[in-house]
Amino acid sequence: MRFNHVANRLDGRHFETVVEMFRTQLGFVELRRTDRAVWLRQPGATIDLQFSRSTTAARDEDRHRSQVSFLSDAPKAALDTLADWFRDRGLAAEVDAYSDREFFLDVPAAFVDFVIEAMRPELADYGVVGAT
């Protein structure tokens, strides 16, 4: 088997806003769409991201442990920019930290089971033979 994509849930009321953010702010392209889901890819990546519409009223309490993760030389600043983008569209957004090198953005009204993480590139230097 070959890894293809990961899927997360978005509140249906804010589905299009989050998809717009991934497209306009992070450069993702839309690959496929159905009534309940969208598949996105960031150019240069080999894994796709699927978002499914959710009607759940409850948010996963430990969603901070499930991330859509990005590398950035300035991770907090990058997430602060995205938080401002969401706030400009009327959604509460909060940036917090796991450490001084890894941060996360939560948009509780939209993200059901994940947060967006940004971390310093050296944290992804795993030194695994055969990894590309």
Automatic annotation (TrEMBL):
State the source organism's domain of life: Bacteria
Q: Which InterPro entries match?
A: Glyas_Bleomycin-R_OHBP_Dase (IPR029068)
Stated name of the protein: VOC family protein
